[in-house]
Write a structure and sequence with these properties.
About 50% of the residues lie in helices and about 5% in strands.
């Protein structure tokens, strides 16, 4: 199981001086975390302006002090989403933070997987945001360091998968929620993989790769045994590493033997990985990722779904 992260990122967009909990905030300088504001001092608008002038978009909170902040943001996210004075870009960043907090909680305290309704409420907020602000979609993809890749990656896959399913299949809302739950939990089996392997900057050994490959089935078994998750969600978790040509895992399924939701989740998973910073390489641009996936992926992805994905994502503008 992964070890708790000592510090958690908090996007500055989430900090309202009038309501934000009084916790110590840190900045990162190289590998070190430096105290920016002690808990006993309330952060001010002037602080936020200085940070903005310095092009800072992220502060950090010690993991043990994150629960009241995460609870505060989660409890107020509905109000934030309905606040017409906030730009969609800011709303997307705050929602991304709330979702990332949720995934971090699962990796540090897996018992919280039993709270299916919490996951469903979060996915519902993501879905509503995507529907209401499709051109602000990129704001959900918070730029965080590769240390936190696993957590924000799950949010990206969920939001991408819901967007693509909505555009192609016009699913009813309850099915889109199940798609989003499968996306946000698709890598939940990684809680059984040591952190040293997940964050290893060098190439994995054959043994380490074998361990990694078990995460899809382990995640499925974990959620199945807990109960409360639909077949749509479970399929995304279990089969998102299957490949259209039969070269995937865990069962070497081929073509339409792979459930439709898992086929789309697989495409979203690879796209998110390519456009994110990783311990062993830097992110590539959206267009380069789409070009690479189209060139290399026609055998491993459903070519029709890949073409539709490129059409949807490649023409999605960013809202200022």
């Amino acid at each position: 199981m992964t070890e708790p992260v000592q510090y958690r990122p908090i996007l500055i967009a989430c900090i309202n001086p009038d309501t934000f909990p009084d916790v110590a905030l840190y900045v990162k300088s190289g590998p070190n975390f430096v105290l920016y504001k002690p808990a006993e001092r309330t952060i001010t608008q002037q602080d936020l302006q200085r940070l903005e002038q310095n092009r800072a978009d992220t502060l950090y909170i010690r993991s043990e002090e994150m629960p009241p902040v995460a609870s505060f943001l989660e409890e107020t996210i509905g109000e934030i989403m309905h606040n017409e004075t906030l730009q969609p870009q800011v709303k997307g960043q705050i929602l991304s933070q709330v979702a990332m907090n949720y995934v971090m909680d699962l990796f540090t305290t897996p018992d919280r997987l039993t709270d299916v309704e919490r996951c469903r409420n979060l996915v519902r907020q993501l879905m509503q945001f995507i529907t209401q602000h499709p051109t602000a979609f990129d704001s959900l993809h918070a730029v965080v360091e590769h240390d936190y890749y696993t957590f924000i990656h799950s949010v990206q896959v969920a939001s991408l998968s819901m967007l693509v399913h909505a555009e192609i299949y016009q699913l009813p809302l309850y099915e889109l929620e199940d798609v989003g739950i499968g996306g946000i939990l698709h890598d939940v089996g990684m809680i059984f993989i040591p952190t040293t392997i997940l964050e290893k900057p060098e190439a994995l050994t054959n043994f380490e790769y074998t361990l990694i490959k078990r995460h899809a089935q382990r995640g499925y078994e974990c959620l199945r045994d807990l109960g409360g998750f639909s077949e749509i969600s479970l399929a995304a978790v279990r089969f998102h590493h299957e490949r259209y040509n039969g070269d995937g895992y865990p069962f070497n399924l081929k073509g339409n033997e792979i459930p439709r939701t898992a086929q789309i989740t697989a495409i979203c998973d690879v796209y998110s990985a390519l456009t994110s910073n990783r311990p062993y390489r830097s992110a590539i641009s959206k267009q380069d990722a789409l070009t690479l996936m189209e060139r290399e992926g026609n055998s491993i992805f459903n070519p029709d779904l890949m073409a539709r994905f490129k059409e949807i994502i490649g023409t999605k503008p960013s809202e200022e």
